[in-house]
Amino acid sequence: MISKNKIAYLKSLADRKTRHELGRFLVEGKKAILEVINSDFRIVEGFLVHDFLNPLQKNFPYELISESDLKKITSLTSNRDGVVVVEMPQNIFFEKTSQFSLILDGINDPGNLGTIVRIADWYGISEIIASRDTVDIYNSKTLMATMGSFTRVRVIYTDLVQFLSEQKGQKIYGALLAGKNLHTTNLLPEGFLIIGNEANGIRPNIQKFITEKITIPRFGGAESLNAGVATGIIVDRIMGK
User: Fold this and answer.
1) Whole-model pTM over 0.85
2) Given a cut of 80, is residue 1 above it in pLDDT?
3) Which candidate, 123, 126, 39, places its Cα nearest to that of 88?
4) Three-state secondary-structure class, residue 93
5) Quick check: 16 and 139 in contact, CB under 8 A?
């Protein structure tokens, strides 16, 4: 049985400030746990309802717990397997590991960020630059939406104005309502694509760095596309070149 103090500690990791103060986050569910085990992340400890690990995967301390205890510490109603506490990587810097990267300006929805990370992983984009007010990659809903892609895509939180001011000579696409037609514009898989906040779009002080404004033409009556869907459409067009 897990102690009350341990339960309180694990539940505290749902808070962004606490996560970053402790340098720990919670990964929930069998698929996500196996993804972390096979990544470069370090697992601090685990709490599993049943032992689904093979001998080579048992490289961290864990204990078996009851389903009732799991319900006290997991945020996912579908989780029947367990949770692990994972150490956050420190001193993450942009390394430009691929020619093309994404920049996120104030993405608020955990599902959108998770979807964007998953899209990046699908298209081989290994780094995402995010404004400091973008939702936390280690939010439980974000992690769930990535379907494990968070282990392969690095999200770097920084001051976007400072970062963009250092990208001299780079192609910087911006997804805006008033831009060139995505389908008739020659887009190259290099530089950056900026995706803005779900409600307000890209902030004016960030727009000034855009070298080419692009838009997804609307053919029907929908008012808008969510940030995740829009990112998928644009990235497919750019990377399909």
Assistant:
1) yes
2) no
3) 39
4) coil
5) yes
